[in-house]
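Working notes for the structural subgroup meeting. M.R. asked for a predicted model of this chain before we commit to crystallization trials. I am recording the input and output together here so anyone reviewing the notebook later can reproduce the run.

Input as submitted:
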Amino acid sequence: MIATAVTSGKLTHDEHHPRRVRLTTRHCQTDAAHEPPPGRAVLHAAYASSLDPDTMQRRAPHSPLRATGWLPGWRLAFAGEELGWEGAVATIVEAPPSEADAPQPSVFVALYEVSKADEDAMDEWEGLDLRTYRKHRVRVETMNGPQTAWVYVVDAYEGGLPSARYLGMLADAAEAAGAPEDYVAELRRRPCR
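Returned structure, recorded in token form:
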């Protein structure tokens, strides 16, 4: 298992597995001043299977793809192996500050303009009511400038390996969304079960 420091979150240790660290990032609270007007869509940054526009169309049919971009200072990780899937699932974590000459990690995302009805359906699909995932606000760098969006983050320990099938699905989704070839190739090279 891999343990990592999260700069914007709280780390707690698992007493049964001393090398495991629970990632608890800030839960984004919104207030009336930051809520979109009623009926107005919000941006969702997809980084896993929802990168694929066809997959997202099935999950959120009223939520068009608006742009692609990057989450600088974040990295793709895997977690939730103990939740009962074939293996760990994708999540994102803030990366520790890198060395001056090292490239800054970043995660490729697709930005979807999500209607309230689709957001509710996605919350159910992702298991928000079961506390499998939590929502987190992020800043996405796009060709048209920075955008604020929400993402789903796994509410579990980072670590474990995804299944080969799941990892292939993520790479295919990234490719379908127009991710650079080197990003897709790096996904395909990651360790898996």
